[in-house]
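Run log // design_07
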């Protein structure tokens, strides 16, 4: 018979911190001068992306593992995850000599599967999504008498994540506000409990993806509800249903929940990478996105922002960088119609050189886009310095009688 789970309290979080000891890295939380000036608040970045497995998830996973009985350790543990929770459980279970099985959706990127295996877990690919993988994990759990380690809806996991709150109180003098991403609610529940029970005046704001605001909907309904699946680049917080343990904690301790869309998250990832030299995944950049888009209502409070993970697929990162450059006016693609005769391309490139625009890529085409036999089309991608520079380039081409269109 499973023991009754104790509620999450400040005391349980303090015990978790003592239990974790030096096994978890004390992640830095330093003032960002650039972001502080840009946003107009003193901004401190809590870099949980620097943990051994690349996210905060290992705090809760290890705390749960350390509460297991000798018999439970001998039988082993199981979890369902497509990413950070999987790696946290796998790494620390292996360190403790505990056999771990992780059920991952079949579409999980190979790099995450390999990483989880390298940390020592037996990986089972099953199902089209997390829900189906979780069902299989629970089936195997009952069949093999294993201990299931939930990614967020478990008091021991929540208490482990809450140790971040205790660290913030020590690292940020006179802390006034904290902005935290929300998926199932394990991270923000633990942090909010630690902070509010220590200093009720600290404002705690949660951030969810606009496509999957499961905690926001649960708060409105007064109970967890399942919302339709949606694709988002913040896959680490793409949770369809809030937790039974986490919802009451969020309702009690979290002051506000806001949402951000994928474009806003992508801009935040690029900002962190370019200005802070910090790599964040979609979920890891969501909290900063809310501040960059001025969605929190904070005005002058000393604010800590959780960068909760950095395990991003490099292909997605490349797309985000390119889209971010376009959005910021630092990359421009034009389709220019030229007379098909010697010197036409030279005239075009001369104007672009005069405007100090760097050519990144060109593509000639004579057969498509409805061009006449006397014309050719060139798609040209340029590095630019911003929207004013783009305007100047377009004006110069217009004055030179070039026919062109901007490709979005």
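design_07 sequence
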């Amino acid at each position: 018979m499973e023991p009754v789970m104790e509620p999450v309290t400040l005391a349980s979080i303090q015990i978790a911190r003592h239990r974790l000891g030096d096994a978890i890295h004390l992640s830095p939380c330093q003032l960002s001068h650039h972001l502080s000036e840009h946003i107009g608040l003193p901004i401190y970045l809590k870099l949980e992306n620097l943990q051994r497995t690349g996210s905060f998830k290992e705090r809760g996973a290890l705390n749960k593992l350390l509460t297991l009985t000798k018999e439970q350790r001998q039988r082993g543990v199981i979890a369902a995850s497509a990413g950070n929770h999987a790696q946290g459980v796998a790494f620390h279970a292996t360190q403790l000599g505990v056999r771990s099985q992780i059920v991952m959706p079949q579409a999980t990127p190979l790099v995450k599967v390999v990483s989880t295996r390298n940390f020592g877990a037996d990986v089972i690919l099953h199902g089209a999504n997390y829900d189906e993988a979780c069902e299989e994990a629970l089936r195997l759990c009952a069949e093999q008498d294993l201990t299931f380690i939930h990614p967020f809806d478990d008091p021991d996991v929540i208490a482990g994540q809450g140790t971040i709150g205790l660290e913030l109180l020590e690292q940020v003098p006179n802390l006034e506000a904290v902005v935290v991403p929300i998926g199932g609610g394990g991270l923000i529940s633990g942090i909010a409990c630690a902070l509010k029970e220590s200093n009720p005046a600290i404002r705690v704001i949660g951030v969810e993806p606009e496509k999957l605001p499961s905690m926001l909907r649960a708060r409105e309904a007064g109970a967890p509800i399942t919302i339709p699946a949606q694709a988002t680049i913040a896959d680490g917080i793409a949770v369809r249903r809030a937790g039974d343990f986490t919802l009451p904690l969020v309702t009690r301790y979290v002051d506000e929940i806001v949402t951000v869309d994928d474009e806003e998250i992508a801009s935040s990832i690029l900002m962190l990478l370019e200005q802070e030299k910090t790599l964040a995944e979609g979920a890891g950049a969501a909290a900063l996105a809310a501040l960059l888009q001025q969605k929190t209502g904070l005005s002058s409070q000393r604010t800590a922002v959780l960068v909760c993970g950095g395990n991003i697929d490099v292909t997605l990162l490349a797309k985000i960088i390119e889209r971010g450059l376009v959005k910021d006016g630092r990359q421009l693609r034009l389709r220019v119609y030229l007379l098909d005769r010697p010197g036409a391309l030279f005239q075009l490139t001369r104007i672009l050189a005069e405007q100090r625009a760097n050519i990144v890529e060109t593509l000639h085409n004579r057969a498509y886009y409805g061009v006449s036999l006397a014309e050719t089309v060139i798609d040209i991608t340029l590095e630019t310095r911003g929207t004013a520079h783009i305007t100047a380039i377009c004006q110069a081409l217009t004055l030179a009688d070039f026919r062109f269109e901007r490709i979005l």
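The chain is about 45% helix and 20% strand.
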